[in-house]
Each structure stands twice: as C-alpha cells, then as structure tokens.
Amino acid sequence: MFQFIVRRLFQLIPVLLGVTILVFSLMHLSPGNPAHIIAGESAPESTVQQIEERLGLNDPIPVQYANFLKDVVTLDFGNSWRTSLPVSTELWPKFWVTFELAIYSTIFSIFLGLIAGIISAVRQYSVADVSIMLVALFGLSMPNFWLGLMLMQWFSINLGWLPPTGWGTPEQIIMPVFTLGTMGAAVIARMTRSSMLDVITQDYIRTARAKGLKEKVVIYRHALKNALIPVVTVVGLQFGGLLAGAVLTESVFAINGMGKLVVDRILARDFPVVQAAVLVMAVVFVFVNLIVDVSYKFLNKRIDLD
C-alpha cells in the first residue's frame, strides 16, 4: 500500500502541472484587460500601462507562466490584483467555509443515501422501494438553487424557524447543507440500491442466511461491506463536485465562501486569486480520490493496490 500511495503522489505532479497550464491559459485568453478594470474606465492610457508594467502583463506569456509556476512551487501566490492583500489571506478563510459546507453536505448525503438505498434494496418492488426511488428521482431533477429558495421561503420567511442567510451557527448550517446534499443523497441512494441488489443475490449471502444468521447481520456485515466499493467511488467524485460547485448554494444563502470569491474575482480578472483557488480545489480533489482508492483495501482485503 505504501508503494501505491507514493506512486499516486508522483502521479499528482503531471496532473497539477496540467491544471496550472489550463487555468493560466483560460484566464489569459479570456476577454478583458485586468489593468483597465483596476484603473477604471476613465483612466488615462499611461496609468493603464503603468499597471500592466507593475503586474508583469507586458512580459511574454511563457515568462508570465514561468513566474506563476515558480510562485506555485514556493507556495507563494503573491498579492491580489484587486485588493493588494496576500492571496493566502483572502483565500484560506473562504476555503475553510466552503470545505466545511462540502464536508457537512457529504456526511448528510452518505447518511441519508445509504439508509434509503438499503431499505429500497431489501424491500425491492415494495411501496417503500418505489417511493424512495421517486423521491430520489425528484432530488436528482431538482436544481439546488430552487430548493434553496423554497427552503428559505418555507422555513425562514413563512415559519421563521431558521435564519435565511449566513454561515457559522447550527441554525445557519441546516438549510445550505440540505440544499447542497440532496442531489448527492439521491445519487448515493440509487447507487446503493443497485449495488446491494447485485450483492444479495450472491452465493455467500445465501450461505449466510442458510447458517441461520439474523437478517440484520447478513445485510450490514456481509452484504453492505461488499456493496460499498462503487458507493465510495461516487462519494469521492461527489465531494470534488460539491467543493467546486457550491457557488450557487453560497450565492443563495449569502455565504462568503470560496465559490463566491472565485466568481467575483473572475469578473474582476484577479488572476492570482483565481489561479490559486482552482489549484487548491484540484489538490483537494486528487487527495480525496487517493483516500477513496486506499479505502478499497479496507473494504475488500482481496484488492491488491500494488
């Protein structure tokens, strides 16, 4: 396993290098001159040229990329072009907000999705199975921002039970987590049901039942553990999606997270902040998938990672 982890860490280098090339290219190919945005529409051309010189925008593109890559290697992303504050000062507080939102939403998705999927698989074609799958289909089809607005209308405006915006208190966490985690719970429920149905028809499950084991022991100790491998894969992919796609939820609930920061800085052409944010999300996504791959060994001892 140690060799597998080391090998995957080395594979991280070309992946991150590709991410740096992609985000650098997209930002520099996008229309709009950052110097014009910083100086203002009525600023004289001399002021714009001075800003371009100060930011290094007059350098050739390969030189700009080499400087950016050097900053990445030294973990020094420079200062924001919009606020002149260090990128790390602006990025990390908002990253942890979005990271917390993604973690809580993932936990909610796993808890709700596993329970729904197990019940649906054990009671195949029953009223409970059909009802759960209909709800899961509704959860997959429903846009997150619409669900967030409806929750805000019901529980904040009409009932006054929960605060409509913000992040930090338990009351403020409930609606954003439910909004962001609903679609993930629906996907996990459908995947759990499908995987469980494949497992419970295997011979070793019939043998366990023939030995007189209780149904709960058969389902949770024998069937569920082997059915979790595809579910864990989905969870890993979803976490990266939640981390990168929380911008709509953050906008609806006025959460000052990294998604909102990235959108604002893309519009402002704040290259250092956007490039650092995308790189951080890529690193987290890769490490989450590394954890998912390692977890396969614990779920099934027969899997050889090396």
UniProtKB/TrEMBL annotation:
Principal location listed in the UniProt entry: membrane
- Annotated localization: Cell membrane
Segments passing through the bilayer: 12-30, 101-122, 134-153, 173-192, 227-253, 273-292
List the top taxonomic levels of the source.
Bacteria, Bacillati, Bacillota, Bacilli, Bacillales
Organism, by scientific name, is Piscibacillus halophilus
On whether Membrane is a keyword of this UniProt record, the answer is: yes
Q: Which Pfam families match?
A: BPD_transp_1, BPD_transp_1_N
The entry assigns this protein to a family as follows: Belongs to the binding-protein-dependent transport system permease family.
The protein depicted here goes by the name Peptide/nickel transport system permease protein
| Domain of life, source organism | Bacteria
- Domain ABC transmembrane type-1: where? 95-292
